[in-house]
Amino acid sequence: MTDRKDELAGNLAKVEERITAACVAAGRGREEVTLIVVTKTYPAADVRALSDLGVRHVAENRDQDASPKAAECVDLPLTWHFVGQLQTNKVRSVVGYADLVQSVDRSKLVTALSKEAVRAEREVGCLIQVALDAGENERGERGGVAPGGIGKLADLVAGAPGLRLDGLMTVAPLTGEYAGRQQAAFERLMDLSTDLRRSHPAANMVSAGMSADLEQAVAAGATHVRVGTAVLGVRPRLG
Ligand SMILES: *Cc1c(COP(=O)(O)O)cnc(C)c1O
Predict the structure, then answer these.
(1) Engineered SS bond to 41: which of 115, 122, 215, 239, CB 3.0-4.6 Å?
(2) Among protein residues, the one whose CA lies closest to atom 11 of ligand 1
(3) CA–CA separation, 59 vs 57, rounded Å?
């Protein structure tokens, strides 16, 4: 193994241990939580090494970086998640490689995703990104719809050709009533997921938790954690 692959293997093992410990503490089975490795800012060679090491889900947040990387890794058995704020002019490109878009937060984006998914003859899984620090009828600083906007957006996705409503995603807020209270934030997301599943029972993905707060997410009931830094190292710049 190369030094880098060794390093990634060691980091992955540590993250795996953390997830397992969090599952045990929460009385959950390890198979209830899926690890998504966030490879943003890191090269395709790292994605390839991670795939060799058994990673099956990767996430990216900028189309400019993700698109060539996904093209270089098209032979790998990976599921690609798009987790960044998405402009409608990037939707055609993103639909070319993303199996899931976790950052759906406005109706215009749903319309664009549906149109391009149909054109590409692909089915794109959609998570509604929830901003727990946004006022009603507002969007979050880092994207996301306020809790009151979930229902309408979910119905729109569920009825849109080419799209599949898979669940909810959030990033722990830095401001507002949930600042510094990750577990409370993730528990709120779980409650919102319970509400959503009353009308959309199959939309059972709950994507929450990153390197710093994956334990709180698992404790709250997250089905997917998105881990970047703890696997790949500290990013050279904010990405
Ligand atoms: C970068 C990113 C992550 C991973 O964050 P780390 O702190 O590096 O684990 C998770 N979710 C989203 C939406 C991100 O942009």
Answers:
(1) 239
(2) 226
(3) 7
The response to whether residue 15 sits with its C-beta less than 6 Å from ligand 1 reads: no
The rounded Cα 206 to chain-centroid distance in angstroms is 9
42 CA distance to ligand 1 middle (Å) = 13
Nearest-angstrom CA–CA distance, 70 and 132 = 31
55, 210, 216, 235, best to mutate for ligand 1 pocket (most atoms within 8 Å of CB): 210
Closest CA to 79 of 192, 190, 166: 166
Residue (of 61, 39, 59, 41) closest to 49 by Cα position = 39
Is 171's C-beta closer than 6 angstroms to any atom of ligand 1? yes
- The model's pLDDT over 199-223, given as tens digits with 9 standing for 90+, comes to 999 999 999 999 999 999 999 999 9
Planar angle of CA 37, 39, 212, nearest 5 degrees: 55
- Is the pTM higher than 0.90? The answer reads yes
Q: Does residue 171 carry a pLDDT above 90?
A: yes
* 205 strand-pairing partners: 167
The ligand 1 atom at the shortest distance from the C-alpha of residue 214 is 9
Q: What is the pLDDT of residue 238?
A: 56
Residue-wise pLDDT tens digits, 74-122? 999 999 999 999 999 999 999 999 999 999 999 999 999 999 999 999 9
pLDDT at 239 over 70: no
Q: Could you tell me where the beta strands, DSSP code E, fall in 61-135?
A: 79-82, 100-104, 124-130
Pocket test for ligand 1, best of 15, 46, 205, 226 (most atoms within 8 A of CB): 226
Task: Name the amino acid, one letter, at 43.
Answer: P
